[in-house]
Amino acid sequence: MNQLTPDEKNIGQNNFHEAVGFTRREFMQGVVAAGAVSGAGLGAMYFGYNKVNDPVRVGVIGVGDEGNVLIGGCNPDYVTVKAIADIRPFGIHRAFHGDWASPAANSARPGLIKQYKYSSEDEARKNVKVYDATNGGIDALLKDEEIEAVIIALPLHLHAPIAVKAMQAKKHVLTEKLMAHNVAQCKVMARISEESTDQNGHPIHLATGHQRHYSVLYDNAVHLLKWGMIGQLHHIRAQWHRGNLPGKDSWQPWLPGGEIGLDPKQSRVLAELTKFKNELEKAKSPAEIDLLTKKVAQWEAWMKDIDVDAEKFGYINKKLGDRDRPAIEELVRWRIFERTGGGLMAELGSHQLDAATIFCSALRSDGKKAHPLTVHALGGRHIFPFDRECDDHVYCSFEFPGPEYSEKFDAGYTIPGVKGIPGYDTDPNKKIVVTYSSINGNGYGGYGEVVMGTKGTMIIDKEQEVMLYAGSDTGAAVGVKAAKGGYALDTQASGGSSAPIAKAASNSGPVSRGYTEEIEHWAYCIRNPDPANRPKCYPEVAMADAVIALTTNVAMRKGARGEAGFVKFEESWFDVKSDDTPDGSNVSQEMDAMRNYKIDGGTQSA
Questions:
Q1: Sign of the C-alpha dihedral computed for residues 465, 463, 471 and 492 taken in this order
Q2: Given this model, what pLDDT does residue 39 score?
Q3: Could you tell me if 373 and 417 are in contact, meaning their C-beta atoms sit under 8 angstroms apart?
Q4: What average pLDDT does range 258-284 have in this prediction?
Q5: Which segments of 69-190 are extended strands (E)?
């Protein structure tokens, strides 16, 4: 985000730890005393759940990039992966062995063998059923009575139909974000979850993977907002910038049979495989031989994707410009096509607008999720050729209603004769403006959020670090002092006395992005079917995130037609019981379609 010097960054991190340690001292001491670490107890302490006596038996539907990340988030103390479903040999191989493309890839996608401590793929397959194109795929998995719940990590257009099929089969569901491809589908999913029960007659838990709800960093940040550490919240600046360029685009993974229009012998997958085989023949050290052996096996599995008949499983051939696009490309590169994906707002913007709404909701007295009032948006395909239907640049501004602040809240200023600060309902001028940009072609600043208040600034960088500053002074170390009914950063104090306890609590393990915690809590809710227990990103919350992302797409389409790229949000769009939608989708039609959906070829893939 902001390009801070190392010293400024260190000061901001220390300020954040000082503030958290001061305001959460007893809790942090409990974390340290319990020896909790990220992914193994820390989430349970933060989010109020416990270990389960009987891990939930789950099937993972779709083991592409995101599905394998979610496998890496599965804690064996909470869930046991008993089955996977996919049509791509490449995904199935990585599901067992992990991703050896790079150390970072392997850390994110360790594979079932490592995650569940199996001695080999043979042992893993004795415990994990594989449903693929040869044995009924998803249909067969959903009929498997041993499976209690499913994790869905499929292309966006399949979230709703497969989630509905799973709930009809009495299985709990955790689906990747975005909740669904259109708002009507979100409402259908929510309604069916309310009327469905599991194998034991308990209510179905439908959760969506907006994992910032389970990030310890974000929880601490929200805690400081509630205690008035940065004062009156009035602006959030968020971005997700990536350096993707034509020929080097993470949303255009290599096709195993080579690029469209080129000789299959020029396949980049084949070229890499050949290179690894040659290197393996010359390798001498055991470590090098081991790594190259794993890479060769992974790339060989990738090449087997050539034999996947994508049309059989519902993917279509299409023509973009003067080039034919085969069904296999829609399967592999589903994010860039409108029929299968939702563009930058669905894939990236939904995460950060979810974070923004978490912050905007933090100071509401009614405990409800804040909904935006308006969006102004524009976007376009400014860099890439006509090899995609989604925009490669998105810029938007949202207006959120400002909350009411009591006279006990220290906003850092007072107005003579006015007690507290009125909220939007009393004074329509009181708004929080959120700006967001997602671009390709330049990754400057990466991704994150800058949260600005009347007393301070908070910077959340790549879900890994939080920096806190008094006002906008990035060079001042601060302490913390009581202020009215909350706290304030004290620039007269050097700080540091409370930071060690917060650092000890947060540095006891790698920073978790929340995948593990969201799965743990979902499993806890399944095993503890009390009305008070529900996932933090339950249908109404997830649907609100989808409404924001999909309405922004509507605004951009208006702009592309030469109209004003502006939409005023309606509260009925956020109401599960209302049939109103912003994107023209029809709830009645989608209900019929979802209830009667037939899975093409028996399975699908991510």
A1: negative
A2: 46
A3: no
A4: 87
A5: 79-85, 129-131, 149-152, 172-176
Which of 172, 82, 147, 160 has the alpha carbon at shortest distance from 524? 172
User: Using the 8-state DSSP alphabet, how is residue 345 labeled?
Assistant: I
How far apart CA 290 and CA 300 sit, in angstroms, is: 16
Q: How confident is the model at residue 601 (pLDDT cuts 50, 70, 90)?
A: low
Sheet holding 447-453, edge to edge: 465-470, 456-461, 447-453, 233-241, 431-439, 393-401, 374-380, 566-568
Question: Which tokens hold the place of 251?
Answer: 């949303």
The identity of residue 367, as a single letter, is G
Mean pLDDT of all residues in 536-559:
97
Query: What is the C-alpha to C-alpha distance for residues 108 and 90, in angstroms, rounded to an integer?
Result: 16
Query: In the chain, pLDDT over 90 holds for what percent of residues?
Result: 83
Closest by CA to 346, choosing from 119, 159, 513, 605, is 159
Task: Reply yes or no: is the peptide bond before residue 158 cis, omega within 30 of 0.
Answer: no
Residue showing tokens 């399967």: 331
| Cα 411 from chain centroid (whole Å) | 32
- Helix (H, G, I), strand (E, B), or coil: what is residue 54? coil
Cα 313 to Cα 310: distance, rounded to the nearest angstrom? 5
Instruction: Give the Cβ contact number of residue 126 at 10 Å.
Output: 10
Alpha carbon of residue 219 to chain centroid: 16
Report residue 169 as tokens. Answer: 């089969």
**Residue 3's pLDDT is what?**
83
pLDDT at 497 > cutoff 90: no
* Tokens linked to 316: 């279509």
CA-closest candidate to residue 362, choices 548, 220, 223: 223
Residue in this structure with the two tokens 């702009």, named with its chain if needed: 559
Residues 410-453: tens digit of each pLDDT: 999 989 988 899 999 999 999 999 999 999 999 999 999 999 99
Contact call for residues 162 and 560 (beta carbons, < 8 A):
no
> β-pairing, 456-461 with 447-453?
antiparallel
Rounded to 5°, the CA angle 331-334-340 comes to 105
Give me the sign of the Cα torsion angle 586, 589, 594, 598.
negative
Measured distance CA(29)–CA(23) in Å, rounded? 12
Separation CA 254–CA 549 (nearest Å) = 28
Each residue of 573-588: b (16+ CB within 10 Å) or e? bbebeeeebbbebebe
How many whole angstroms separate alpha carbon 339 and alpha carbon 336?
A: 9
Q: How far is CA 513 from the centre of its chain?
A: 9
Q: How many CB atoms lie within 10 A of CB 202?
A: 16
| Predicted pLDDT of residue 606 | 45
* Euclidean distance between CA atoms 8 and 476, whole angstroms: 8
Unique residue bearing structure tokens 């707002």:
345
